[in-house]
Structures are given as C-alpha cells and as structure tokens.
Prior knowledge:
By secondary structure, this protein is mainly α. The protein has helices spanning 2-13, 17-30, 35-47, 51-64, 73-85.
Amino acid sequence: MLLFSRIGPCYRKLKEFKEAKDALRKALQLEPFSPLAHYELALVYWEQDKKQQAMEHLNTALKVWEEADSEFKQAKKAREKFAEWDLF
C-alpha cells in the first residue's frame, strides 16, 4: 500500500492525473481508510477542478487523523489544506 501512496504524489506532481488516481485507488483497495492516500487523491481532484470529490477525500483523511497530535506533519498539512479550500 505504501508504495502506491508514494507513487501517486509523484504522478500528481508530473500532472499525470490518471496515473496518480490509478495508483492511489490501488492503495485504497489495499487499505480503504488510508489517510495519506485519501489526502493525495484529494489533491489530484482539486488540481483537476473536481472540488466536490477533493473535499470528500480530504474529509475522509481528516476523520482518520481526527485525534492526531496537532504537530503531526501530515495531519497538520491536511488541516491547513481544509482551511484553505473551505474558503471556496
């Protein structure tokens, strides 16, 4: 699972959104509530201007990370992204 969660962001940064979504969906098949995969998939959808799908995946990640320490890097980034996107 971790492999697919790491490959997805690489594809996203290369603007290869189909490949990014495919990799992240594979990660979610193996671990349906992977907050990292949901967060990265949210970023892919946001960049494709699919804001509703992006928020759905971001909310799932935030639910999983709900009780994470405020300084946990990945959860912190997701919370900041939610605050940024919630303005739209």
